Amino acid sequence: MKDLILLFLFVPAFLLSVESCKKDPSPVSTAPSITSISPNSGFANTSVTITGTNFKTLASDNTVKFNGSAAAVTSASATTLIVTAPSGGTTGHVTVSTSDGTATGPVFTYQAAPSPTITSISPDSGSAGTLVTISGTNFKTTVTGDTVKFNGVAATVQTATATVLTVLAPSGASSGAVTVTTGNGTATGPIFTYAVDVYVVGQANSGWGYWKNGTFTAMPSNCVEAWSIFVNGADVYIAGADGNTGGPAYWKNGTTVDLPMTAGHNGGRARSVFVDGTDVYVAGWDFVNGANSLPRCWKNGVAMNISLSSGNISAGLPVVIGIIYKVVVSNGDVYLAGSQSPFSGNQVATYWKNGTPTPLTDGTNVSEAYDLFVAGSDLYVTANDGVTSKYWKNGVATALNTPNSFSAYPTGIYVSGTDVYVSGYYRDVAKYWKNGTMVDLTATAYNPIFNESATGITGLGSDIYISGNEISAGTGYWKNGAFTALPGASIVNGIFVK
Fold this sequence. Notes:
Layout: H1 2-20, E1 33-38, E2 41-42, E3 47-53, E4 63-66, E5 69-76, E6 80-84, E7 92-98, E8 101-110, E9 117-122, E10 125-126, E11 131-137, E12 147-150, E13 153-154, E14 156-160, E15 164-168, E16 176-182, E17 185-194, E18 198-204, E19 207-212, E20 215-218, E21 223-232, E22 235-242, E23 248-252, E24 255-258, E25 267-276, E26 279-288, E27 291-299, E28 302-303, E29 312-314, E30 317-318, E31 321-330, E32 333-341, E33 348-353, E34 356-359, E35 368-375, E36 378-384, E37 390-393, E38 396-399, E39 408-416, E40 419-426, E41 429-434, E42 437-440, E43 453-460, E44 463-470, E45 474-479, E46 482-485, E47 489-497
Parallel strand pairs: 2-8, 10-17
Antiparallel strand pairs: 1-3, 3-6, 4-5, 4-7, 5-6, 7-8, 9-11, 11-15, 12-13, 12-16, 14-15, 16-17, 18-19, 18-47, 19-20, 21-22, 22-23, 23-24, 25-26, 26-27, 27-28, 29-30, 31-32, 32-33, 33-34, 35-36, 36-37, 37-38, 39-40, 40-41, 41-42, 43-44, 44-45, 45-46
């Protein structure tokens, strides 16, 4: 019995000894592996599913590359990764790296992204600012990825998907094809036809007001002069004079806004209005009983600081008088055109930038700057000096050609591309000048009892619009030389199109 007990005690010890002699098992690998990718070809930004083993379950712990270009991991499990083929990738192997190693998988083949196409636009006509929907394929899905143009003029993209873009028809464009350009090509779509609204300000048989496409809208009876018109969206602004106060005023949609005058002054005129965003600029002058006028520009009804030149610029006398005919705002800068003079000397054609004057003439002859136009970084001003009328581009003058020594009188200036157009009259007959060369608007011959004039000029795309009167046809406007008479019109002072 004693021997049996000893044997029982010996057996476990023996088994333990045998177990301890076994070798340790081989360590299990945790490095990732790739068994497949799907799809194995496509465009940049294609969603690709990678199948394998030992992926990390946190997306940021997996580094995936397409031929060396990092891809965004959008979903992760131990056996599946969903990634986006990077836009900068090229055809080559897909790799997955974790903290435990790197796996190299099959080749992903990049396909060339297709060019955009346009199937339709809606609406296919309208005015500047119309919201247009462009339908097609292969558009970029960001508003900055698609360049849309209306007959060559860039439009603002509002929203973007791969098949639909919404854009605003740009101002300054004319009827023509709509195009969409991405990094993969350009698509040419249908024609968008601009429905142009023509506004002309002046006097009809029933009083002062404006015509829109030939239909007259009268201003209130206190409007005794209407010189300038500006249209911003659905709002119509008219600059002129208030008969109740005798001073400068403007009207917004028929509502009078009187402008403050210099202390002690009791009259004046608003000759020009310009709207920049939500800011309304009005320019003109005020005076004491018709004398000693001062140049004025109001922003939202508050007078801005407008200086006169220091020193003697005419007849050796100090400058004390000034008037302004035009205001234009561009890139935050306020430009004014008009004149300044001593109390008893000749007027000097002048423009102002942010209130600082620059004389264009020397006071030898009476001269006034009637209009200006800003194109990019270039400033154009037109004026007469009693001998030779001119326009200036950045201070360099170009004479307006006339057949003999008689002077021309410019009234407005407009620039389209490299062409400079000036409206006015020569020997009391309506004319315009293109790059300094005189062009007839009418067949009227000079007659001292006639009084024709082209009073203002503007444009839209390649179309040129000029307000004025034609002795044989009436009072109205020309579009590309073709005259339209306005019903009841006796005077027209300016024109605006949109």
